[in-house]
């Protein structure tokens, strides 16, 4: 009966491409966006920037524009008759207890839990043999649930904890120290910390990094160019914190610090871009010891992952585009003395440590393989995973013998496993409570050829038995930049698409790191067009093989992926029916003028680099590339507190898109208030945005989603 119902349900979805028109769903007139006369000149070329005024997020006219745009967007979305049905379905799907993998600090085991629809996950702790108790509840930090905890770090003995608070998703945080036993605040709250962890040294204090707060212009969009590493001694004012690294003598854009587990070495990484870093160490066992440079250039990536006495274990891609693990004596740590412990291979390597062991995480065609090694480099176990997907974790203290990891895929809800280091055996620790039956769905990997013949992998997920007739609503999602790996992961939101007979597809584009640094470099600077070509080829593959068609295809991506979507619809406005550029980098001539944007130059290049680089950027920059055309139905999304990719990118792009749209499809911008680049959003904000995404997508495809049969996802065929 259920199988038969599903087939009837799928057949009933497609009510014709004119659904939105038949329902008379259309946007109200767009706000009249004024145009200025600002221009810039690059190598003799004058570039107009008529919407430059929208870069000032403090200005009253910008605030008024945001309000008017949101009114138009919400008025449009309010007309969609099934919008609330989707919201209720998402709330039902989301309403189950969600747990993180546990971790041990001092005498307690800690874990995060969200009861279901709580705004933020709550941090619990549990003593041996005791009952769980609330340790920190971020839901009490603000009335609307938009103040989140942006990380926590415990001192080695577990008696002290430092956690960071982010307001409205901002990257600027405040750091609070508490006595972990009494939960009482210790000392003053540190203000204006950014892009930093908290690195404890005993119980004396900790290291942290931050920038000087911009003195002129917007606090959210002002440039933050020089990172500084400080030492904060507990009980002293922040104004007395000691500068350890950075500043005028060693200016660097990104600086991070951490201690080895035995607290013998302070490790400092320093960089001016998002790829490559210098490496420094300081032997804290020797009072007054100097900070020693290990690698003095930023051409490659290097991290100290562990030490045994004076032996350092360094993870690097020097002479190894897919990475390797080397060892060296800290007394003479230069790269010429490095010795391979785990050599490079065809698969990309990542390293974690737990239980006194090394865990090699290999990426094979964007899926995970795990091997356990001794500290001497002997292979001990190949970890048996429950399927093809993504395993994360395998990180714990040296004394821990039972550790935890999480496994997931596009059809395997995130499940926590307990792993015994001695035996190499895994047991299910916590199953997901989501209403989803994996047996009804399948996920397969295909390989397709891009424009230049490059072989690119893509994973396609859908309900078993779906007919490939070109009429399946499909969401194509990608990123393609900064060496970031897109590996399989379960999405509760995607159930709404899959249970309606829809298809979810994720290609691993060049610019990412799925095949190492060579793959990354094939999609940067004057090779960035490769990324767009890979994405367009993925869409064409889906259309050619009848998974979908232009009329039922949506494309989506966020941040660098928002740039990807923006560039794609300007180059191929005929490719898809719907587009979702989220928090995107849209002005490629000015991205480096805001916050830490200058650090993205390794991937993008800048308009100031050379005439050739300027012309290349100018050609594909989504904001500048818009011309009068019939564009797909587009909902740009951003947030008013995004201080990483400032909302001005999306503001300017949306204003110009509305100006240039010559077709009937809506071009809207949805601006989340009291939110940032993505991290720390409340559950209500996430559900709200996902509701609007699916509603906008379905209505513009002419799809009328039918409510799911109660209990259908949990049933067996």
UniProtKB/TrEMBL annotation:
<feature type="signal peptide">
    <location>
        <begin position="1"/>
        <end position="20"/>
    </location>
</feature>
<dbReference type="InterPro" id="IPR001375">
    <property type="entry name" value="Peptidase_S9_cat"/>
</dbReference>
<dbReference type="InterPro" id="IPR023302">
    <property type="entry name" value="Pept_S9A_N"/>
</dbReference>
<keyword id="KW-0732">Signal</keyword>
<dbReference type="Pfam" id="PF02897">
    <property type="entry name" value="Peptidase_S9_N"/>
</dbReference>
<keyword id="KW-0720">Serine protease</keyword>
<dbReference type="InterPro" id="IPR051167">
    <property type="entry name" value="Prolyl_oligopep/macrocyclase"/>
</dbReference>
<dbReference type="InterPro" id="IPR002470">
    <property type="entry name" value="Peptidase_S9A"/>
</dbReference>
<keyword id="KW-0645">Protease</keyword>
<protein>
    <recommendedName>
        <fullName>prolyl oligopeptidase</fullName>
        <ecNumber>3.4.21.26</ecNumber>
    </recommendedName>
</protein>
<dbReference type="InterPro" id="IPR002471">
    <property type="entry name" value="Pept_S9_AS"/>
</dbReference>
<feature type="domain" description="Peptidase S9A N-terminal">
    <location>
        <begin position="32"/>
        <end position="431"/>
    </location>
</feature>
<comment type="similarity">
    <text>Belongs to the peptidase S9A family.</text>
</comment>
<feature type="domain" description="Peptidase S9 prolyl oligopeptidase catalytic">
    <location>
        <begin position="488"/>
        <end position="700"/>
    </location>
</feature>
<keyword id="KW-0378">Hydrolase</keyword>
<dbReference type="GO" id="GO:0004252">
    <property type="term" value="F:serine-type endopeptidase activity"/>
</dbReference>
<dbReference type="InterPro" id="IPR029058">
    <property type="entry name" value="AB_hydrolase_fold"/>
</dbReference>
<dbReference type="Pfam" id="PF00326">
    <property type="entry name" value="Peptidase_S9"/>
</dbReference>
């Amino acid at each position: 009966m259920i199988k038969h119902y599903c087939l009837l349900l799928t057949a009933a979805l497609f009510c014709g491409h004119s659904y939105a028109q038949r329902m008379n769903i259309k946007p109200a007139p767009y706000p009249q966006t004024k145009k200025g006369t600002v221009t810039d000149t690059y190598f003799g070329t004058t570039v107009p920037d008529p919407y430059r005024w929208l870069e000032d997020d403090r200005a009253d006219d910008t605030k008024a524009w945001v309000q008017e745009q949101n009114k138009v967007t919400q008025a449009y979305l309010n007309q969609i008759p099934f919008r609330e049905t989707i919201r209720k379905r998402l709330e039902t799907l989301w309403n189950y207890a969600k747990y993180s993998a546990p971790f041990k600090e001092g005498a307690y085991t800690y874990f995060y839990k969200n009861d279901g629809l709580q705004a933020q996950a709550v941090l619990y702790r549990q003593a041996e043999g005791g009952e769980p108790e609330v340790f920190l509840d971020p839901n009490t930090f603000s009335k609307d649930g938009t103040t989140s905890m942006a990380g926590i770090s415990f001192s080695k003995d577990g008696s002290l904890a430092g956690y960071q608070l982010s307001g409205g998703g901002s990257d600027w945080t405040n750091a609070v120290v508490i006595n972990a036993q009494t939960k009482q605040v210790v000392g003053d709250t540190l203000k204006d910390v950014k892009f930093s962890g908290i690195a404890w040294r005993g119980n004396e204090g900790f290291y942290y990094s931050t920038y000087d707060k911009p003195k002129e212009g917007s606090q959210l969009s002002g440039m933050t160019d020089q990172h500084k590493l400080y030492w904060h001694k507990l009980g002293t004012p922040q104004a007395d914190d000691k500068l350890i690294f950075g500043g005028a003598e060693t200016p660097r854009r990104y600086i991070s610090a951490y201690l080895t587990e035995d607290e013998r070495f302070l490790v400092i990484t320093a960089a001016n871009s998002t790829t490559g870093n210098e490496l420094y160490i300081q032997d804290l066992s020797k009072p007054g010891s100097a900070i020693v440079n290990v690698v003095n250039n930023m051409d490659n990536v290097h991290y100290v992952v562990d030490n045994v006495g004076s032996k350092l274990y360094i993870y690097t891609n020097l002479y190894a585009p897919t990475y390797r693990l080397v060892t060296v004596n800290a007394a003479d740590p230069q790269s010429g003395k490095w010795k391979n412990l785990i050599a490079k291979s065809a698969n990309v390597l990542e390293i974690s440590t737990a239980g006194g062991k090394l865990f090699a995480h290999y990426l094979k065609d964007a899926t995970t393989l795990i091997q356990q090694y001794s500290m001497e480099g002997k292979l001990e176990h190949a970890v048996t995973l429950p399927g093809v997907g993504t395993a994360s974790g395998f990180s714990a203290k040296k004394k821990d013998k039972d550790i935890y990891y999480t496994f997931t895929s596009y059809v395997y809800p995130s499940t926590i496993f307990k792993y015994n280091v001695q035996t190499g055996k895994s047991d299910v620790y916590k199953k997901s409570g989501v209403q989803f039956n994996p047996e009804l769905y399948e996920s397969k990997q295909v390989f397709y050829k891009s424009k230049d013949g490059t072989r690119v992998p893509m994973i396609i997920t859908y309900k078993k038995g779906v007919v490939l007739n070109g009429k399946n609503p499909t969401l194509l999602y990608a990123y393609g930049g900064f060496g970031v790996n897109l590996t399989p992961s379960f999405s509760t939101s995607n159930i709404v698409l899959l249970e309606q007979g829809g298809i979810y597809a994720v290609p691993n584009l060049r610019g990412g790191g799925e095949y190492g640094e060579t793959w990354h470099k094939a999609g940067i600077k004057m090779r960035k067009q490769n990324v767009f070509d890979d994405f367009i080829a993925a869409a064409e593959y889906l259309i050619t093989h009848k998974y979908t068609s232009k009329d039922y295809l949506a494309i989506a991506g966020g941040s660098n992926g928002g740039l990807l979507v923006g560039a794609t619809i300007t180059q191929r406005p005929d490719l898809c029916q719907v587009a979702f550029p989220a928090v995107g980098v849209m002005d490629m001539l000015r991205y480096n003028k805001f916050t830490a944007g200058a650090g993205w130059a390794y991937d993008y290049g800048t308009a100031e680099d050379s005439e050739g680089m300027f012309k290349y950027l100018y050609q594909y920059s989504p904001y500048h590339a818009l011309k009068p055309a019939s564009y797909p139905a587009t909902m740009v999304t951003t947030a008013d507190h995004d201080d990483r990719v400032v909302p001005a990118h999306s503001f300017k792009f949306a204003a110009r898109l509305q100006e240039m749209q010559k077709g009937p499809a809506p071009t809207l911008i949805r601006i989340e208030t009291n939110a940032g680049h993505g991290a720390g959003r409340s559950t209500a904000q996430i559900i709200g945005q996902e509701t609007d995404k699916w509603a906008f997508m379905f209505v513009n495809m002419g799809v009328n989603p039918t409510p799911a049969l109660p209990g259908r996802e949990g049933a067996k065929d």
